Amino acid sequence: MIDLQRDGDVYVLRFDAGENRFGPDFLAAVEDALDTVAKNDGPGALVTAGTGKFYSNGLDLDWLGAHRDEFEPYLGRVHALYARLLTLPMPTVAAVNGHAFAGGAMLALAHDFTVMRTDRGYFCLPEVDLGMSFTPGMSALIRARLSAATAHEAMITGRRYTADEARAAGIVQRTAAEADVLPAAVELAASLAAKNGTVVGEIRTGMYGPALAALNGPPLG
Amino acid sequence: MIDLQRDGDVYVLRFDAGENRFGPDFLAAVEDALDTVAKNDGPGALVTAGTGKFYSNGLDLDWLGAHRDEFEPYLGRVHALYARLLTLPMPTVAAVNGHAFAGGAMLALAHDFTVMRTDRGYFCLPEVDLGMSFTPGMSALIRARLSAATAHEAMITGRRYTADEARAAGIVQRTAAEADVLPAAVELAASLAAKNGTVVGEIRTGMYGPALAALNGPPLG
Amino acid sequence: MIDLQRDGDVYVLRFDAGENRFGPDFLAAVEDALDTVAKNDGPGALVTAGTGKFYSNGLDLDWLGAHRDEFEPYLGRVHALYARLLTLPMPTVAAVNGHAFAGGAMLALAHDFTVMRTDRGYFCLPEVDLGMSFTPGMSALIRARLSAATAHEAMITGRRYTADEARAAGIVQRTAAEADVLPAAVELAASLAAKNGTVVGEIRTGMYGPALAALNGPPLG
């Protein structure tokens, strides 16, 4: 479902579960991997990546449909994952190898930087077209990481951004052909791995205070 | 004074009162039109437009001069108009056919998107040159919709932005020749009319919580 | 250590103390100069500039090392300087003639606009590489003046921005060759000197409420 490897100073966390939706087993596996990563001592950085044509499609709507009474704690768990990445004591890079939709797009936004594949895949917040609003935590995360104009367009129109469009809109920082996405992300992460991880975590915690408060608050506000 | 028509799924609200300043009668007419629009069921979107060389020049300073004791409730009413647009349960597009100054510029900013005329007209926040500050609600609205750099320049220098400059600064999203401004705005609005209006309103309400709190709070802070 | 001259309507405050670090004597001299400037009546604007290859390198770490028990009030004094500039009742322009690092970079950000020298000097927030986090006030100042993407990159990577890179990232508004930095800053300041200073100060105070609250709060949060 996931695979955690170390490449020099860089932890590479591959999501390998099809659309990489956030089912409970997927979340548990990612949480365990981040527990391992967070114990790192010395230089370190994290890259997350999907496989095939998906980075992640976000919430597991099938599971949610069968567990409606667990909606709120489930959202809280997803929020906690975003908050965990925002405060992770090391630099982080998302290797967006394919579609990053909805909660999966927000997962990419919770990283320091994103490298996105050019020939295929979209960054998209389709909630408006699914008849869904954003939780206070999600709304705060998106607003904190994107420009006002980009956040507005992405959230109100549900636009599907190609890699080039996402870079022009400031959503991702680099683009690469399919075969180069992961290497470029690892290279970027390696270039940052010598930063003091504790300080990196503290700086982000200070920068994103309001977003973290929203993510750590009641999931539905 | 105003004219409300429906063009397919798009409501077109034309301001037709010269400089389209926010006198009490103008505000009452716009409020009534928005009441009608808000009752829409099914696909829908709103375009607002001025006539001739003015979109709107904002506060009615002549009326205010004659009603100084009504300054605070008057500002509250203008704030409520901005808040109403920010929370309107359907996509909104401003067709800026001419000057959008001061409160009229902020009215445009309260829409989802703006199409601005290229050959004539400015977007301008001239308050600094009028010896006026911004209310907390207005300041929050501007900051929430523009980049930090653009908001600072616009508010501190009172710069008059042409359509091309406004687009480069991220103030407007599209530009068009005079005859094309309204058609382009209607086309953009029509492309968004199928969005679930309730969800659109909820998403904006979540995105602009602090600005809405300021707009709904005491007008002078 | 510093020199305050008046050039037409423009006050030119030169820092002339090597790296222009914020030692107590330097801070006292700048505070005195700002006291003088703030008494201005009529048209006025302020330009600050360094000398040689330094605009300012920020905190005086040597002095701090010898006065560890004064760390918190010292930070409070630096915060107060930033807050003073943000609320100064006249337009302000930083002439960044050389390196603007750490607290010195933030000093530039506390001005309305910055002109930066093209052939030499960097804008840099190197805290992460010094093993230091940002105080709540500093973090809030940076976030309020830069785009989310630029603030993140600058704070997490400690990138050294040349003038051209700083302009592309929205950190500075103009660039100039060495000999032209100060004249360009004075020209820009002069063009704004007729603004009503009180109103300028009020507009900024309204725009930067949260940053000012953080700068005026407990220095370490």
What does this structure look like?
The structure is a homotrimer of 221-residue chains. Chain A has 221 residues and is of the alpha/beta class. The first copy, chain A, has one domain (2-216): 2-enoyl-CoA Hydratase, Chain A, domain 1 (Alpha-Beta Complex). The first copy, chain A, is 48% helix and 20% strand. Chain A has ten helices and twelve strands. Chain A has helices at residues 24-38, 61-66, 71-87, 103-109, 136-145, 148-157, 163-168, 178-192, 197-207, 209-216, and strands at residues 2-7, 10-15, 21-22, 45-49, 54-56, 58-59, 92-96, 99-101, 113-117, 123-124, 160-161, 174-176. In chain A, the strands form three sheets. Chain A has a six-stranded mixed beta sheet with strand order 1-2-4-7-9-12, with helices on both faces. A four-stranded mixed beta sheet of chain A has the order 5-8-10-11. A two-stranded parallel sheet of chain A has the order 3-6. In chain A, helix 1 (24-38) packs parallel to helix 3. The longest helix of chain A is centred in the middle third of the chain and has 17 residues, at 71-87. The two termini of chain A are 32 Å apart. The relative contact order of chain A is 0.17. The model of chain A has no long low-confidence stretch (mean pLDDT 97). Chains in contact: A-B, A-C, B-C. Chains A and B meet through helix 5 and helix 6 of A and helix 9 of B.
